[in-house]
Amino acid sequence: MPALSHRITTLNGDGSDGWDVFYRARAMVEAGQDVIELTIGEHDIGTDPSILKAMYQSAMGGHTGYAMVPGVNALRDEVAARVQAQSGVPTRRENVLITPGGQAGLFAAHMAVCEPGDVALYIDPYYATYPGLVRSAGAVPRTVATRSSNGFLPERDALEAACDGAASLLINTPNNPTGAVYPRDTLQTIADVVTAHDMWLISDEVYDTQIWDGAHVSPRALPGMVERTLVIGSMSKSHAMTGSRIGWIIGPESAIEALVDLATNTTYGVPGYIQDAALFGLQAGAELESEVAAPFLRRRAIAETVLATQHVVRMIPAQGAMYVMLDVRDTGLSGEAFANALLDAERIAVMPGESFGASAAGHIRVAMTVSDDRFEAALRTLCGFAAGLATAA
After folding, report:
1. Letter string b/e over residues 231-259, b meaning 16 or more CB atoms within 10 A of that residue's CB
2. Residues 155, 123 share a domain
């Protein structure tokens, strides 16, 4: 058959896509084995029934045809109001494009601001799809290294060193996989660097309702940043609507107009009944968002209690999101080797830090996505397993 395009056959670079342990765990589950899956960010509570009812009613009411490509106006208005209330930045529907999830928004944002061959920066550790989505947009991925000892916060020297030839910088706060919430001074440093180098900032803020310490600050709210920032939002994490695939991009009106053209030629919008369900979810207010976030706050406290009883595994301070990042280097294993050994020995699946970049080598990411008692038992087993490895070493 004819050759596939170089673009699609090189999405993962020269290595794997970082999901090997996850796929192996799923194969074990399908084979009937009992595996505690602490891998992906999938809520254990599911989408609230009231949202599903709104989705059903909208579909049965006939909102199953083509919806307006930029998004239903009522939803765009609601998202704009939400963003303005959170950030203090004036935001109108013309600043909003509704997308099929945050992932589609990230891809579209890079298509909008990167010419083919441009360098696109992102912070290491990073969400596992970032390198591939940059390549899929025709750009060249380049990481900005961070340090575990500094809570994985980006630093000016590393940012400056990476900027040569770069068109954009992608950040994610609250951060997946590290749980870091970028403080205002870190964001100001980022803003200063992208302004000095005339770059776009793409801000992935899909975990903005999951803040355990500190406060979420959108860099779009910093002086001079509204015209060079694209913000990615989503209903996936805030409302447990992962499978519904609905999110948004916030940006300058001219950028949104261009992104609407892209959507017309790619996704052709989001189904109307899903948009109506998202509108219902947003209008339900902060109480529903708090209910969705509450299990992760509880489980973070469980993790802190369990980790405090031993000295082999170090927990990176988890300030937000639905994960904890654990340093397992004292076991003598890499994150990947530890994750595979843990899966084989204890049937507990976690993500290797190496799946998220070189800066996370020797770490593992643990998703807080099973019941409290099962989560605590898994962590205690994990720590005991680590202690045995450290003693043997």
Report:
1. bbbbbbbbbbbbebbbbbbbbeeebbebb
2. yes
* Domains in the chain, number: 2
Domain that holds residue 176: 65-284
Q: Going edge to edge, which strands form the sheet with 323-327?
A: 36-38, 348-352, 363-367, 323-327, 314-315
Q: Residue 344's Cα: distance from chain center in Å?
A: 28
Closest CA to 242 of 322, 128, 136: 322
Residues 103 and 14 placed together within one structural domain of the fold: no
- Co-location of 118 and 107 in the same domain: yes
Instruction: For 251-301, write each residue's pLDDT tens digit.
Output: 999 999 999 999 999 999 999 999 999 999 999 999 999 999 999 999 999
Q: Tell me: do 33 and 121 sit in the same domain.
A: no
Residue 108 lies in a domain: yes
pTM exceeds 0.85 for this model: yes
Tell me the CA distances in angstroms from 324 to 18, 29, 315, one per residue in order.
Answer: 18, 23, 7
3-state SS, residue 193 = helix
> In this structure, which amino acid lies at residue 316?
I
Whether residue 360 lies inside any domain: the answer is yes
